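User: Please predict the structure of the protein below. I'd like the answer in structure-token form so I can feed it into my own downstream comparison script.

Assistant: Understood. Taking the following sequence of 199 residues as input:
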Amino acid sequence: MRYQLPQPVERLVNALSRLPSIGPRSARRLAYYILKSPEAEVLDLADALKQVREKIKYCRVCASVTDKPVCAICSSDDRDHSTVCVIENPQDVTAIEVSGYNGLYHVLMGSLSPLDGIGPEDLRIDQLIERVRKGGLKEIILALDPNVEGEATAAYLKERLKGFPVKVTQLAYGIPMGGNLEYADGVTLGKALEGRREL
């Protein structure tokens, strides 16, 4: 007879394996780690999951995660309220923040992907246009993933923002610091050449 995990353990493994980047083997490892952890740690993890589900929402201005109606970034007087960085997902805020960026954000909640049935109406594009229409913005920075969907979304946004008195810029792509030219692919080199600047 084939060994079968007890039902509660199997349920935990199945739940963990639904998380991104967690396959069945990693899920089993995590489940066994949780089983051998002190009860207080396990209960703290369960409580943290419960709290994040109950208390975290999306900011009504930018759609970043927050525990208040408007996030700390949107409500801060210390931020540059004339610049908005457009990103695909809430987790991109953390990535941009380490750069020292001091403006605001606008989360699209994805990117255009006709093959997956995701069109402009499925993203927070109308909300971005409304923010621009209200005035006070000087620059929109498009910080979208450097892939086909990100490029398509950037092109669509540039078209939609034409006619507004706002500068639209896009993150430069190219060779990373410390990288070697011989290892760069043609697309990366092409983007680096396109984004070259005068010294």
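That's the full token string. The longest strand covers residues 80-87.
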